[in-house]
Amino acid sequence: MTPTKVIRRLIDVAPPIIAENARVPNRCVLATAIGVATLARFGIEAAPLAVSVRLANAAYMRWLEEGEPGGADEAVRRGAFVLDTSAGRLGPAGLSVMEITGRAWNRHLVILVPDRECVIDLDAQQLNRAERGVHVPSALVLNWPRGELERTWPIGASCLYLRAEPQDRSFEAATDWQVFPEIVGRVERAIRKGR
Question: Are strands 150-155 and 158-164 parallel, antiparallel or unpaired?
């Protein structure tokens, strides 16, 4: 099976299997651990990559394209929304919305596949904010050329920006950062079954 086919099947079959076994709705650490281990079983080199995320809805993008008229107050009046996991370092003052509280981690974890020049997000669903006009599929494969540290992509009418934070390995202390052989086995079998 080609790496492209494995990756395509992985993003189809892994999210529901991972969701069945997750204890929390935001499960990027678990999803990445499972994804990296599964890809290894197919001989595909992959590694975890911590990223900062900025996700802006269509209202924000229109306001930005119009030259930011009326400042942040006008953007908010128009329904502009920005999800920013970098504690506001990426967004304009007054618009960065931190929805991450408690024991949460202010990063997101994705799978870097250098030979395919892509990142895989098996837990993209946690970025969904339907009430804000942001619709993200359950999993994504995004182009990530070698050496890049940041990228931007359109996601429907929204815009997704990721910045690599390779020095952040704090996810390794999370209880979900471990290989669950039974889950990896289920994902592998589902990929192989779809040949």
Answer: antiparallel
Q: Are strands 96-97 and 82-84 parallel, antiparallel or unpaired?
A: parallel
Look up the pTM and report it. 0.87
Integer Cα distance of 110 and 114 in angstroms: 12
Amino acid in the structure at residue 36? V
Contact indicator for 59, 79 with CB cutoff of 8 Å: yes
> How far is residue 182's CA from residue 193's CA, in Å, rounded to a whole number?
16
Per-residue pLDDT of the chain (195 residues; tens, 9 = 90+): 999 999 999 999 999 999 998 777 788 999 999 999 999 999 999 999 999 888 888 888 888 889 888 888 888 888 888 887 765 444 454 454 444 444 556 789 999 999 999 999 999 988 888 888 888 899 999 999 999 999 999 888 888 889 999 998 988 988 888 879 999 999 999 999 975
DSSP per-residue codes, 117-146? TEEEETTGGGG-BGGGTB---S-EEEE--T
CATH value at residue 133: 3.10.550
Helices (H), 66-180: 71-77
Whether 10 contacts 192, CB under 8 Å: no
Domains: count for the chain? 1
